[in-house]
């Protein structure tokens, strides 16, 4: 299997997302592989790091959209998204259906268009025992970990996604950093 390149320079553009059901699917398909995602939805109190990034009060439930993402039927990453209750509860985000363009499309429809994101990437760390079992890897096979923190036009955090996957399946993480603003 070829390594996957995650190209953040345009994976979130409306044109690229319109190619498929979201950035991951469009990106994997452009790289000549077949994408597939399995999604479950639940309400829960998020892990402490996620709650901190969301700015949630302790012990406050949020909506979790768990996504297991495959390329050519190989599990390449787990990427649950955590969304504040006042945005997600009682909305179509609790439905398993995914519109063309993915969750970003649904968030925009709900009035919470994601306008920028911060990403905290750890390129390589030892896997947890759960990750070893889930990805069928050994304890000496590292995983990457990335927290994607998305903001709306009011600078409110509207979603935190926690991406993890085996390093050997991923080639590059590509970003464009704006140095000068007008």
Global Rg: 16 Å
The structure class reads alpha+beta
Report the count of strand segments. 9
Topology order in helix (H) and strand (E) letters? EHHEHEEEHHEHEEE
InterPro entries: Bact_HTH_transcr_reg, Chorismate_lyase_/UTRA_dom_sf, UTRA
Pfam family, one: UTRA
Domain UbiC transcription regulator-associated: 30-171
Protein name: UTRA domain-containing protein
Describe it:
This protein is an alpha+beta fold and 182 residues long. Helix content is 20%, strand content 37%. The protein has one domain: Chorismate lyase-like (Chorismate lyase, 3-Layer(aba) Sandwich). The protein contains 6 helices and 9 strands. The protein is globular, with a radius of gyration of 16 Å. InterPro entries: Bact_HTH_transcr_reg, Chorismate_lyase_/UTRA_dom_sf, UTRA. Residues 30-171 form the UbiC transcription regulator-associated domain. Pfam families: UTRA. Residues 1-25 are annotated as: Disordered.
């Amino acid at each position: 299997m070829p390594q996957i390149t995650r190209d953040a320079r345009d994976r979130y553009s409306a044109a690229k997302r319109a190619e498929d059901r979201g950035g991951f699917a469009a990106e994997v398909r452009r790289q000549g592989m077949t994408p597939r995602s399995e999604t479950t939805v639940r309400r829960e109190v998020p892990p402490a790091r996620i709650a901190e990034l969301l700015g949630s009060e302790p012990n406050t439930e949020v909506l979790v959209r768990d996504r297991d993402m495959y390329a050519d039927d190989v599990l390449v990453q787990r990427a649950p998204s955590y969304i504040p209750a006042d945005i997600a509860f009682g909305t179509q985000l609790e439905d398993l259906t995914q519109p063309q363009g993915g969750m970003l499309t649904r968030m925009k429809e709900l009035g919470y268009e994601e306008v920028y994101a911060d990403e905290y990437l750890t390129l390589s760390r030892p896997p947890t025992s759960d990750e070893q079992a889930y990805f069928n890897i050994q304890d000496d096979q590292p995983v990457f970990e990335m927290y994607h923190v998305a903001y709306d036009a009011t600078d409110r955090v509207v979603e935190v996604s926690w991406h993890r996957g085996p390093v050997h399946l991923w080639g590059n993480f590509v970003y464009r950093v704006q140095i000068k603003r007008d």
